[in-house]
Amino acid sequence: MLKALTASLILFSFTAFSAPKSELWAYWNSSNEANLQNVSHQSWQAFLDKYLVVEGDNTLVRYVRVSPNDKQQLKSYLSELAAIDPRTLNKAEQYAYWVNLYNAITVDLILDNYPVKSITKLGGLFSFGPWGDDVITITGQTLTLNDIEHRILRPIWNDPRTHYAVNCASLGCPNLQPQAFTSNNTEALLEQAASTFINSNKGANINGDKATLSSIYDWFAEDFEAQGGVIAHIAKYSPKLTGFAGKIDYDYDWALNKK
After folding, report:
1. What whole-number distance in Å separates Cα of residue 257 and Cα of residue 134?
2. pLDDT category, 127, cuts 50, 70, 90?
3. CB 163, CB 196: distance < 8 Å
4. Contact 257, 250 (CB under 8 A)
5. pLDDT score of 4
6. How far apart are CA 144 and CA 73, in angstroms?
7. How many CA atoms lie within 13 A of 44 on its CB side?
8. CA distance readout (Å), 25 to 20, 51, 155, 218
9. Which residues contact 26 (CB under 8 A, 6 or more apart)?
10. Cα–Cα–Cα angle for 41, 47, 51, nearest 5°?
11. Which of left, alpha, beta for 186 (phi over 0: left; psi -120 to 50: alpha)?
C-alpha cells in the first residue's frame, strides 16, 4: 500500500509539472551602467574545460570524475559570486553573472547527490526536482533556482534565448555551454546556443507533416510571442519549420547529462 501511494505521488508530481510564470522580483531590477567591473568566472571556466565533453547533440559532464578539490573549488566560486551585490553591476555583466550562477549551482547540486539518474529525483518527497529549494543567499536575500530564472532573468531581460543559456542537467535541455558567459561573449553564445539546439533533434525534429519540438516551446510559449511565436522563432535559425502547418508534439528527456 505504501509503495503504491509513493508511486502515485511521484506520478502526480511528474504529470502536474508546469513551468513557472515570469514574475519580476523588483528588488533585483536595478543596475549601475557606469560600473565597468568585470566579474571573474575563471573558476567556472576551468571546471568546464576539465569536465565537459561533447557527444553528438549533447554536452555531458563527467560528474563521476570530479575531484574533491575541484568540488571545493566550485563551492568557493559560488561563495565568491554570493559575496557580490549584482545590482551594482551593469546589465550586461549582471546577465552573465546570473546565468553562470544558475548553471554552477545546478552542477553543484548534482555533485552533492551523485550518483542520481535525473535532477527530478532531487528536492523533497513531493517536489519535482530542486528548483524550488533555497540554494544561495545574496545581499541577505535567499534565492531558489526558480527565482534566478523566472523572477530575475526572464522578466528583466525578456529574451527567450535565456532558455538556451540556463541548463537543468538533463539531456533534453539546451546544452551547458563550454564557455562561461561574460558581458563580452553573451550575444555570440546566445546565438550559438539557439542555433545548435534548434538544429538538433532534441530541439526540433521534423518528419513529413509531423514535428516533435522540445517541451520548452510548450512550457514557455509566451516568451516567444514577441518574435511572432515559437515557429517564427525556430525558423529564424533553421528554415525547416518555415510555414510549417502540420501536427506538433512535444518531448523532453529528463535523464542526467552525464558522461
Report:
1. 23
2. confident
3. no
4. no
5. 39
6. 21
7. 28
8. 13, 34, 8, 24
9. none
10. 150
11. alpha
Phi, psi of 242 (to 5 degrees): -60, 120
pLDDT of residue 86: 98
H-assigned helices in the chain: 2-15, 42-51, 68-82, 91-113, 145-146, 154-157, 162-165, 186-198, 216-219, 230-237
Which of 36, 37, 48, 38 lies closest to 180, judged by CA? Answer: 48
Q: Which three cell numbers stand for residue 8?
A: 502515485
How far are the Cα atoms of 107, 134, 168, 172, 177 from residue 111, in angstroms, in the given order?
6, 17, 13, 19, 18
The domains of the chain are located at: 20-202
Residue 183 carries which DSSP code?
T
Does the pTM exceed 0.85?
yes
Q: Map residue 107 onto helix, strand or coil.
A: helix
CB atoms closer than 10 angstroms to residue 137 = 10
The Cα–Cα gap between 28 and 15 comes to 32
**Which 8-state DSSP code applies to residue 153?**
I
pLDDT band at 17 (very low <50, low <70, confident <90, very high): low
How far, in whole angstroms, is CA 193 from its chain's centroid?
Answer: 12
Instruction: Look up residue 248 and give its three cell numbers.
Output: 506538433
Residue with cell 568557493: 76
Identity at 7, one-letter amino acid code:
A
Distance CA 145, CA 110 (A): 13
